[in-house]
Design a protein that fits this description.
Layout lengths: L2 H16 L7 E7 L5 H17 L1 E7 L3 H13 L4 E5 L3 H7 L1 H6 L1
Parallel strand pairs: 1-2, 1-3
Helix pairs in contact: 1-2
């Protein structure tokens, strides 16, 4: 599992345990910057799996910029979500794995 999904799972588990008496399904937002990228789609899949395993609903939202991020957070609050994770690109590993950069080393 990726570190973002682990964080989401921990938040979900804590929230589920603290509110286990409630019949309502716990909702957590999972916001990604570039949903068309395979890496982000994989993160969403891991978040869905964590949600199924731990008993919470994942609300997936694409947030390409800061304004949309703020709007998404407002929407999550309005829908009753108890928290959210913002999944950003890992620029350091992208640089490390870049073929162009590998040629210069």
């Amino acid at each position: 599992m990726h570190k973002f999904t682990k964080a989401l799972a921990a938040i979900g588990l804590a929230a589920v345990m603290s509110q286990s008496a409630m019949a309502e399904t716990l909702k957590l937002g999972f916001l990604v910057k570039q949903p068309e990228e395979p890496w982000f789609q994989t993160e969403w899949k891991f978040a869905d799996k964590a949600g199924k395993d731990l008993g919470f609903e994942v609300i997936k939202i694409a947030v390409p910029d800061g304004e949309k991020t703020l709007n998404a957070i407002d929407s999550l609050a309005a829908s009753g979500a108890k928290g959210f994770v913002i999944c950003t690109p890992d620029r350091s590993s992208a640089r490390r794995l870049s073929p162009k950069r590998a040629d210069t080393i």
